[in-house]
Amino acid sequence: MELIKVKDYDAMSEEACAFLVERINRLENPVLGLATGSTPEGLYKRIIEKYNQNEVSFKNVKSFNLDEYVGLEKDNPNSYYYFMKDKLFDHVDISLNNVRVPNGAAADLKAECEAHEAAIKAAGGVDVQLLGIGANGHIGFNEPGTPFTSTTQVVDLEQSTIEANSRFFDSIEEVPTQAISMGIETIMNSNEILLLVSGENKADALAKLMNGEVTEELPASVLQNHAKVTVIADEAALSVV
Ligand code: GLP
């Protein structure tokens, strides 16, 4: 794992932007694995700036999102589909035919998980997978205890995750209790992984990831087994490493 230490959230976003833009420009038909949450927001803002300065184009990019809440329609402002359109897709030249966010409102969720997995394979796999990390060490919505052999599936969210994400909802009762998430194996199959970590509330998880054992109890620890991982972390996130 390569660790890039930066000062703060802005510096992390800047560094991550340079990293992704370099890959998008270098790869002929880039396939990106994208993430939601507060962590990548600054990165998406900067990428849009680069797009507006003609320094990057998404014309040949395909993307697959990591996860989506079960039960939320695409036009629900709390859905991850909505987030992606709002924070990135609507502002760059990506074709919506080339993006796939799991459909959490699908009638047959199992079939939807299989379809997500199959679409990733059909695209030739993910070149660069962007990840954040939960304070409990989750990646995507793969909570502690998720088998490393998991592929895209419906998962139950931990109470701590529901509480952490309730900040985006009007009330905690509105936070879905389930999600579709790419599995650990799906994530590990990507060629390259970029993990962004910012803030003190992620410091324990990051310290365990960097120094602890590889265990399903800390899903992110599996990244130690991947050949090409870059971690960009700020000082607050590194405060207990
Ligand atoms: C969320 C998402 C993850 C994200 C993580 C951290 O629940 N499902 O994909 O990486 O938890 O979120 P944030 O970046 O908002 O701290």
From TrEMBL:
EC annotation from Swiss-Prot or TrEMBL: 3.5.99.6
Gene name as annotated: nagB
The species this protein was found in: Oceanobacillus chungangensis
Enzyme type, top EC level: hydrolase
Active-site residues, as the UniProt record annotates them: 67, 136, 138, 143
Domain of life assignment: Bacteria
Summary of the function given for this chain in its UniProt record: Catalyzes the reversible isomerization-deamination of glucosamine 6-phosphate (GlcN6P) to form fructose 6-phosphate (Fru6P) and ammonium ion.
Protein keywords: Carbohydrate metabolism, Hydrolase
Single GO term (MF): identical protein binding
HAMAP family, per database record: GlcN6P_deamin
GO annotations of cellular component type: cytoplasm
Reaction(s) the record says it catalyses: alpha-D-glucosamine 6-phosphate + H2O = beta-D-fructose 6-phosphate + NH4(+)
UniProt GO BP: carbohydrate metabolic process; glucosamine catabolic process; N-acetylglucosamine catabolic process; N-acetylneuraminate catabolic process
Lineage: Bacteria, Bacillati, Bacillota, Bacilli, Bacillales
Protein's recorded name: Glucosamine-6-phosphate deaminase
SUPFAM superfamilies assigned: NagB/RpiA/CoA transferase-like
Stored PROSITE patterns: GLC_GALNAC_ISOMERASE
